[in-house]
Amino acid sequence: MTMYTSNLLEIKNFYKEKLNDLSKDTLEVVYSKLTQSFLFNIYEITDEIDVFVAFESMNNRGKRLSTLELLKNRLIYLSTLFNVDEDIRIRLRKEINLCWKILYTQLGLNPENPLSDDEFLFAHYVIYFYEIYFEEYRKIHMAIRNIEFVNFSKLRSIYLLDNYFVPERIEDGKLSATDIFTYINSLTKSIKLWGIIKNPGNSVWNEDIKNLLLKINYFNPENYRFSECSDQLILLLYLLQDENNQGKIKKLLKYIERFNYLRLFYQYECIAEHLKDFNEEELLYKACKENLSIDFFIDKYEKKCSEIVSSSSSYKRLLKMYSKTNFYNNRRLVFYTLCDYELKLTNESKSSKKVNNALLGDKNYATIEHIFPQKATCAYWKKMFADYTTAQKNKLRNSLGNFVLVSEAKNGKLANKSFPEKKENCDNVVGYKYGSYSEIELCRNENWGANEILTRGKKLLIFINERWGLSLKNSDFAHILGLEFMNK
User: How far apart are alpha carbons 237 and 457 in whole angstroms?
Assistant: First the structure.
């Protein structure tokens, strides 16, 4: 199923659902309108008018076609202008049509996560025309990136449709049929890899690589930093095109995933000094220009991770930062950490999976539940936290140890209930006892108070230390958790 057939199926189901709700009389009216009142415009193109130019002109009115659609029409149009044998023209046109068939198939291969054609075209544009992008357009991008939203799709389409794939370049001898063959071959090769990077479940790579790619996608959502997609994903598109060594691929992805987590945990204010010479956009340009290997980047990411965790100045800033904020302010960090902790518990268990990995697509476990609730109005919570001030209670409820991932439905049902009720209640499918491994682990506690929050928070920090190779000191755990008052 391609992206277009997926859209058609969605439209069909939409109308089918709407029509099922209509009365017989109304259905007759609809049928009458469909069979008798439809008007069609028929445009007869004379030999003097170029059909491809007419296509672009007509479709630039109203809802515009995507750059991908316009680009296909433009390439077919250009194929008619080359001074080559007719069989080459026919073969070029067939190759263009085949390329676009593969493009639309890959973009819609996973109905749960259809890929953006603009995002892919931007990624390919950056590595294929890297000199143009980095040397001629980069100054424009960087000048306005920090001021307002940048329409990167427009900048890219301007170059492809207004500057590069234009008849004038054929007349000047700057664009040949070979250039278009080379471009569409590159598109075909890149879209297959892009489909794997964005939807790794469809690949033949091993499970470790698939999981790492899914995690890296979490750190690089669409429209990341006002771009079509992140420099990191484009870098992977470049590096993995001719790399078949899965051992090297896994090693690179492990360091990238670790780097992403460190950047999220420390936040920019703590490690700014270490990121000055680690601009991934510059590294991407360097990779394209110098044809750098995957080994270069394995070493680069490994050293940068070690530099961050061994920096005493960054550690001091980290402690200062966490004294002013709480983990709930960094929900992306909390969500990712809890997802990976659940994976750890799953791997340690000999039973089947409880969660299909919320991080990797299980939308049933997509909300963060406060165990000690935000609105603790019942008598149980008032009694458990009677000895703490309002400020201290706020720190406790927003500390790392007080969070667990649950489904949105469960989050609403548990809400402000007491801890014993949250563990198990009359609705036997709602309590922690029947949930994920993380939820079941909570049930080992008879009650839930400040000591339990601190203990679980320390346990999660030990997990973070081991999982991502941090150097957090045990003596600083309470401080990092925002619970330094507990030490007193």
Answer: 38
